[in-house]
Each structure stands twice: as C-alpha cells, then as structure tokens.
Amino acid sequence: MTKIYAGSPVPALNSVSFTLPARGVFVLIGRNGSGKTTLVRILATNLEATSGTATLNGIDVMSEPDQIRERIAIVPQEARPVPWMTPLQSVLSYLLWRGLGYGEAKQKAGEVLEKLKFGRKARVLNRTLSGGMKRKVLMAMILATEADVIFLDEPTTGLDPLARREFWEVLQEVRKDRFVVLTTHYMEEAEQLADTIGVLEEGKLIALGTLDELRKRLRYNYSVKLLSIPEAPVILTEGEMVKGNHDLPVILTTEGEAFRIAQELSREGIKFTINPVGLEDIFFYLHPGGDTGGR
Fold this sequence. Notes:
By secondary structure, this protein is of the alpha/beta class.
C-alpha cells in the first residue's frame, strides 16, 4: 500500500505490505513523519490510499468502508471530547450513537469509567479536565464499545505514569477478544502491550515481529547507554555503537564486554546505564539517526 499526499515529493507510505492475525495488540513505532498515523487513518477508513489494498477480517477497507466502520472504533491523535459534556455523558452518547439501548449503554459507560478510575470526575464538564484526563475520556468512549478492531493513535500522550499504567491494565483485558492497533513513541508501552511490533521509517515498514523476533536481528544482547559524551572515545573489543536519545552513545555488545566497559566508565567517572537489550535499543539500531519520539 502506498500513500502520496498532494504536493509532497515523497510517499507518506511506500509499498507497505504485511499480514497479521486480527487478535491481540499490534503496535506501530517510528519517528516523526514515519507514516504511523497515515497507516492507521487508511485502515480506519478515514483516508484513501493512493494505491494498494487492505483487508480487515476479510473485508476490503477500500471498497467496503461502511462494513468496516460497523466493526471498528478509533481514537484519532487530534480528537477532543465535547467540552460541555461530562465523561459519563460522552461515553453514554457515543454508545447510543453506535446503536446500543439506553440501559445497556448506561451500564457499559459506568463500568468503563470505573475501570479507568474516573471517580467523581465522571460527572464534571470535560472542559474543566486536564489534557491527560481528556485523553482518558476518549479512551473510555472507545473501550466501552464492542468493536472488533480498535485503533488508538498515541492514546497515552499527556497521561501521567499512573494513569498510563491503569490504561495498560484495561487494554490487557480488551486484547483477549479484540484486535487493537496502537501507535506510540513510548518504548516501554510497546514492550508491555505488543504481541506484534511494526517499525516504520520514512514510509517503509523496516521491521515486523514479536519483541523476541526483533531482538534476534541484533548480534548482541546487552546495551550500555552513556549519559554524557566522553572526552576520549570508548574502545570496543566487541560490539557496535549507535546514536541514542539526544545523540548520546549507545553501545550494543555482549554481556562480558558490557561489564568490562562498565568498569572502565566507572573509573573515568562517566555516568551510564547497563541493561539487556530492549525495544529502545532495537529502535536505535534500526534507526541510525537516534531519537525515538514521533508520530
């Protein structure tokens, strides 16, 4: 599938192709402008592809959009709750709009707001809520539905760490019988939630697999992240160095070499962290330019 926006010299999506079972959580990661939001909008029938096809549970996204919309729910990145409604009213009205009866809609609205720990804030006006709480209202609206497929475009942006973990807990339940497509620039979130991870770079899908499968793309199993740039270069006997956040060095190497480097850095008074390779390290390896942030 390819998408080229009018006036753009390069594709937003460039011949992206993959097949996945429609269950669990599929997480898309990538830097700014990598194509995550474009892909989600096409799959959710909010945007037409320039060329190519896509199907969800055997239904063609391009030729049968109405059937797709009956089975999906989406929280777009730019969405905001209606300011003069309360969270309870927002969820209730959304469920009524999707065709539920009043009694069932009210029950489901109450249940999801309780799971997301709204408390008294369930009955205050949305315009009085913080940005993070407004995002929670949108998530509550979507999670209360019975949609087979849920699209969440950076859903936890603006949430505090506690609220983010509460959302993860709810999503762990949702994933059991529904398919969730989620974009994020929080590597920890992707590690916690993803059954399958897709890595986008400049509109191309450069990696796809489980976390363990992506780990196997690296030759090394340990990561040493420097928290400052040393005056003298670090000498490696085994491993390779890539750019991490803020262009700080990240050394990917074996366990033994990692601890040898750690001793050397400690003697020189250089601050660092040392851990088994995680998704952030894989991201740095696949994206030689560094930083993880982006849409």
